[in-house]
Write a structure and sequence with these properties.
Blueprint (H helix, E strand, L loop, with lengths): L1 H15 L3 H9 L6 E6 L3 H14 L4 E8 L10 E6 L6 H15 L6 E6 L3 H4 L9 H12 L5 H10 L16 E7 L21 E4 L2 E6 L4 E9 L1 H11 L4 E8 L3 H14 L4 E7 L13 H13 L5 E7 L9 E7 L2 H7 L4 H7 L2 H6 L4 E3 L9 E7 L1
Parallel strand pairs: 1-2, 1-4, 2-3, 4-5, 5-8, 9-10
Antiparallel strand pairs: 6-7, 7-8, 10-14, 11-12, 11-14, 12-13
Helix pairs in contact: 1-8, 2-3, 9-10
């Protein structure tokens, strides 16, 4: 069953990797050449590839700039400058290439139309710190944020205070009169001001319909259109199509601390009589209290293993959609009612492991971790609760 679940998860991700909503909008979007493209985030390469393929079919000239995470480039995209920087902790290339992007934006002409493609990781990859805030300061600041237990919304508000580009400030560098921004959301409630720390989202934007916004800038002369083309719920519903029934997609998005999430899912499992697969999602932050090895998903799985120990017929999967649960070689974990006994048989004290945040090390000993897989899309984490 475990292999079936993992295969279904990877199949759902492959379907979403085709970016159907981006394709649909760009195929009908009125565009006047020359078009400029700016792609930032962990999914920048596949988003730019889809965009360029459509522009080529429409015989629209383009050029642009792409900034993504190390290792997330898979080929060449003609007419695009392609650069890589560090994620989740910024490095010297983060600042270097972010400054290049600002210079590139300033060189655009008013008659050129700009397509911006944003995805998870943009907060780390695109950054020019405020004056007096050094690279060393930026690295230490982000390390502390990632271990603080704050959720993504809270972290990005803090990041904006130290940035020259976040919270809509990057828009000040753009001369193009028409801007089309497409975003893959990795934040609660799909709030554009939080995605990539809102670098290209102005405060005066108006919501036209779900996941679509418009704004007038520079005294009404500049128009911005902002569309969210994928999110955690897109992944949940696609995954539901890949799994054998019965499957129940749950409406809740988890962004509170990981202990609360484990409590909720355990209570849900104990109070639900209906058998089947329940799909939850979100990003549950972990406040790091030790020096162990682990990630959000493995930590949540271990907490839940403790709560469901000895109960009947419960299996739980916690999986990172980008295939990387804070570690390059693991995407998450799978636990059940027997996991605690298996750990104890190995002489592992689960309470000490949790206190040390050493979930990966413990779960690896009983083959409960899910190996990493290659996926450029970051649509947060998926939690699967199987009751049988």
């Amino acid at each position: 069953m475990k292999d079936l679940i993992i295969n279904a998860f990877e199949s759902a991700l492959r379907q979403l990797n085709t970016l159907p909503e981006l394709k649909k909008d760009l195929e009908k979007r009125p565009l006047s050449p020359p078009v400029k493209i700016l792609a930032i985030g962990k999914s920048a390469f596949p988003m730019a590839k889809v965009c360029v393929d459509i522009l080529n079919k429409r015989e629209i000239n383009y050029s642009g700039y792409l900034l993504t995470k190390y290792g997330n480039v898979s080929g060449i995209i003609p007419n695009l400058i392609v650069k890589e920087a560090s994620h989740p902790i910024p490095d010297i290339n983060t600042i270097k290439y972010s400054r290049e992007i600002l210079s590139w934006l300033q060189e655009l002409h008013a008659n050129e139309e700009l397509i911006i493609l944003l995805s998870g990781g943009g907060s780390s990859l695109f950054e020019v710190p405020i004056n007096g805030f050094t690279l060393e300061d930026l690295i230490a600041f982000n390390k502390n944020l990632l271990q603080s237990g704050l959720n993504i919304k809270e972290m990005n508000y803090e990041r904006a205070k130290k940035s020259k580009v976040k919270a809509g400030k990057a828009l000040n560098y753009i001369k193009a009169m028409k801007i089309y921004c497409y975003a893959l959301s990795d934040v609660p409630d799909n709030e554009p001001e939080i995605i990539a720390s809102g670098c290209f989202f102005p405060a005066n934007s108006q919501k036209i319909e779900d996941n679509y916004y418009q704004a007038k800038l520079k005294k009404g002369k500049q128009e911005l259109y902002y569309s969210i083309i994928g999110d955690n719920f897109s992944l949940r519903y696609q995954l539901a199509k890949e799994l054998p029934p019965p499957v129940y997609v749950q409406p809740r998005y988890f962004s509170k601390n990981v202990e609360n999430v484990a409590e909720f899912i355990a209570d849900f499992a104990f109070s639900t009589d209906k058998k089947g697969m329940y799909i939850f999602g979100g990003e549950a932050p972990v406040k790091v209290t030790g020096n162990g090895i682990g990630g959000r998903c493995t930590h949540l799985a271990l907490l839940l293993a403790k709560k469901i120990a000895g109960k009947k017929h419960i299996t739980f999967y916690a999986l990172a959609s980008d295939g990387n649960d804070n570690l390059e070689n693991v995407s998450g974990a799978c636990v059940n009612q027997n996991t605690l006994n298996q750990l104890q048989a190995k002489g592992i004290d689960i309470f000490s492991v949790i206190a040390e945040c050493d979930s990966y090390s413990a779960l690896k000993t009983i083959n409960a971790v899910v190996p990493a897989f290659q996926n450029p899309l970051n649509l947060n984490d998926i939690y699967l609760l199987q009751l049988y």
